[in-house]
Design brief:
about 250 residues; alpha+beta; eight-stranded mixed sheet; 8 strands; about 30% helix
Amino acid sequence: MNDPDSPARGPDALDCQVTPVPKLSAAERGRLFELMSRHFDQVDQAQFFADLDEKPSVLLLREAASGSICGFSTITLFETTRGGERLAAVFAGDTVVDPEYWGHPAWVYAWARYGFALAQQANADKVYLLLLTSTHRTYRFMPGFFREYYPRPLVATPADVQARLDTLVRIKFPDEYDAVRGVVALQRPTPVRDERQLPGTAPGEHAAERFFLERNPGYLNGDFLTCLAEFTWENLTPLGRRVVSAPT
């Protein structure tokens, strides 16, 4: 992993762009599958491309010097109703970033701005970020960006929030969602490869990590903890507000 102060990790090292999925070249699609397979085990190529083609666009992370794709994230907005209430969710799908760029500000800022812009397009009574994660690193995004999010340590998830979470997750995973455990266990799981699991910090070093491990003990098998946060300006932390309002 590169030194944080090295040129490869500098603020201008990366370019982030939103690209319509139909405009991806065959080489770019192949690169995305390569990245996914490098980080996750048992990735089925046909299923990966089918999932990709369901998304209208993908956020690409490129090395500025070479133009090589070193990360990507599929994010989409979907809407539904529950008991007359209009719900919308920004759904964070597959996300892969080469280890040397984990947490790089250009990537984090681009992802947050894109997700927040999608949330503002929704025509709904409640707009959420729906995050499914099998790693503690991604779960730490929730306390970093949101004042209130669920599930979280020491706070019970309100019944109405849990009901919305259940509704939204079942749209995407009607047969693989275990509402009792709050996890999605895929029939064909794609667990994170061992060498990509917990580099840099020991599991449970932080409170959010300990909570994640307690709530999702099957993460090594590829189980996803289901998380929800209102994607509104009012619910963003000071860091979240700085990020989504940062100039492009």
